[in-house]
Amino acid sequence: MATKALQAGDLIISLPEKCLLTTSTVLSSCLGGYIKNWKPPVSPLMALCTFLIAEKHAGHKSSWKPYLDVLPKAYTCPVGWEHHVLNLLPEPLRKKAQEQRTTIHELYLSSKGFFSSLQPLFAEDTGSIFTRSALEWAWCTVNTRTIYMKQPPRECFSLQPDVYALAPYLDLLNHSPNVQVKAAFNEQTRSYEIRANSQCKKYGEVFINYGPHDNQRLLLEYGFVARDNPHSSVYVSSDTLLKYLPPLDKQRKAKLSILKDHDFLENLTFGWDGPSWRLLTALKLLSLGADEFACWRRALLGDVISARNQEQTWKITTQICHFLIEETQRVLLQISQLRRSTGNVPPQLALVEKLHLEGLKILQNSAELLCTWEVATPLQLE
Fold first, then answer.
1. N or C: which end of the chain has fewer CB within 10 A?
2. Neighbours of 382 (CB within 10 A)
3. Dist. CA 205–CA 201, nearest whole Å
4. Which has the closest alpha carbon to 142: 127, 160, 125, 156?
5. How high is the pLDDT of residue 238?
6. Which residues does the chain have with pLDDT short of 50?
7. Residue 260 and residue 275: Cα distance in Å, rounded?
């Protein structure tokens, strides 16, 4: 809560360097010597995760106990969800969550030897302390709560970037897509500072901005969905894209190769203002007739190729939009049935429902826009 009205440029918080938990903190602890001696070197991320697990295990003996006590006991990020709930997520998001799960599992398996080397520090067996679930908790803590703060390279760590810092108290500030802040480490004051770039009323909640993320990204990385998020999108997977292309198109393979080479098979979306320029451009290229294929470079630049190409692009965009509406409604029905059968809504299920309800609004809005846009309008949409 703001104890006074905040104006643009006002300091919201200044956290001294000594309060930040970084790899320097880890190396100055009892883990430092073990990390320096371990080969191959552990990653900076792994060092932080190990420290968090060890300090949590230490309980009241840890000087970080006040901070550890306010950290979530469990996280709502999809990486930790049960499969039946994970399967209700939109396909691109589900795939990314599964990739994160694989990353944590591989990290755990590759770190078992390092964990065992820490045995002299513990009375209990390290296998019962550094478990798969403990690593997932620590990984989620680092992934959801760290600020960006570059550390000097050290030989005792792997070549992965050392840019994480846990910031007690500062990490209690919530995200809002509708505020702007300036955040950076101040070399003069040796403090991490956040300054307001917009106004905040006295006694109002002070928000910060984690970045211009859509709700799929926020759910994946932070475990929540923001209300009234102007950045929200519904993603079109390459599989969905291919469903609506003529299977007998002789240039199909070449077209897909061009899209892949020019990075036009990812981040194809519907937003609050309708289909994105990237989606329309990809579909425009895929809709090129045999006699138009030589114009593919012009298509990628957004040029109008022909009335036939334009009409076909519009038609496929509309078909994909309606397909995604039906898919979203089907998932929402599944969620409704799950709610009735279980009698309550677990937090994960509520998040999935929020995400799909927002997606449905975006798609229905896009369908209306596609109906109102004249087919003759050039496909040069912002």
1. C
2. 5
3. 8
4. 160
5. 87
6. 375-376, 379-382
7. 19
Query: What is the residue-wise DSSP string for 325-378?
Result: HHHHHHHHHHHHHHHHHHSS--HHHHHHHHHHHHHHHHHHHHHHHHHHS-TTS-
Q: What is the pLDDT of residue 374?
A: 56
pLDDT of res. 249: 83
Task: Please write the tens of the pLDDT for every residue from 162-175.
Answer: 999 999 999 999 99
234: which strand partners? 270
Question: Two tokens at 14?
Answer: 């200044």
Secondary structure of 173-230 in HEC code, one letter for each residue: CEECCCCCEEEEEECCCCEEEEEECCCECCCCCCEECCCCCCHHHHHHHHCCCCCCCC
Q: What pLDDT does 5 receive?
A: 95
Q: Which amino acid does the sequence have at 334?
A: Q
| Tokens describing residue 85 | 């709930």
What angle in degrees, to the nearest 10, is found between the helix axes of 91-117 and 215-222?
Answer: 20
Residue linked to tokens 């979203």: 328
With the C-alpha atoms ordered 21, 25, 30, 36, is the resulting torsion angle positive or negative?
positive
Q: Is the peptide bond before 230 cis (omega within 30 degrees of 0)?
A: no
> Which residue type sits at 187?
E
- Residue 92 tokens, joined: 């691109």
pTM of the model: 0.88
